[in-house]
Write a structure and sequence with these properties.
mainly alpha, rod-shaped
Length: 122
């Protein structure tokens, strides 16, 4: 009977060790799964952060392109306005020059007409 109890005791201890090993294996498996999930979560967070950084960079580039376009449009408008002023001024100057030329021609014509008159009178 003692032998039988010893055998039962050994069987109990083996079963207990086996059960403890199973628990240990399950615990290790759980830790590995948890670590893997944590790693996947960190990777996902890092990827989303990277994508957000790219999105922000793209938005910044679009905004800078818009600002550059607006700056170019303002510069072009300014140059066109300046060109209009210069053209108007140029025409004004040409008009003044033409008036002077017309006046000079009239004076020459009057002088010529007086000479003809005076040559006819004498």
């Amino acid at each position: 009977m003692k032998e039988e109890m010893k055998q039962q005791d050994r069987d109990f201890h083996r079963a207990l060790e086996c059960k403890m090993q199973e628990q240990k294996d399950l615990l290790e498996k759980g830790h590995k799964e948890k670590a893997e999930k944590q790693h996947q979560l960190e990777k996902l967070i890092q990827e989303r952060s990277h994508q957000e950084g790219i999105r922000q960079l793209e938005a910044k580039m679009v905004q800078e392109a818009k600002e550059k376009q607006q700056e170019l449009e303002r510069a072009l408008d300014s140059k066109l306005h300046e060109q209009e002023k210069l053209m108007a001024k140029g025409f004004t100057e040409k008009e003044a020059a033409m008036k002077e030329e017309i006046q000079s021609l009239r004076e020459k014509e009057e002088t010529s007409a007086r000479r003809r008159k005076s040559s006819l009178v004498t």
